[in-house]
Amino acid sequence: xxxxxxxxxxxxxxxxxxxxxxxxxxxxxxxxxxxxxxxxxxxxxxxxxxxxxxxxxxxxxxxxxxxxxxxxxxxxxxxxxxxxxxxxxxxxxxxxxxxxxxxxxxxxxxxxxxxxxxxxxx
Length: 122
Hints:
It contains no helices and 11 strands. The protein has strands at residues 3-7, 10-12, 18-25, 33-39, 46-52, 58-60, 68-73, 78-83, 92-99, 111-112, 116-120. Helices cover 0% and strands 49% of the residues. The protein is globular, with a radius of gyration of 13 Å.
């Protein structure tokens, strides 16, 4: 059983950067991937990026590709998502998720954090 807790959200100006953290606890991380999803107001949840826990293979969806970096610290069971060049369109609640499989909307992910709010505005 894994618990996930996100941190690092907040308010940032357009063009700014944030680094989100996901602390996993409750035992050895036994999921194949850790992923970040987000849900903007009145929008469906969508995937942002994923990383495999062992090999560290990274995947970015088009919404953040080229301006984000996902990483993980296996020894301390922490996942990170660094986002640069933020725009108001990035405003959303960002969720950390873990599992062996997951689709664009997050179906299939087994564990979820409660989310951290990112607000991008002038």
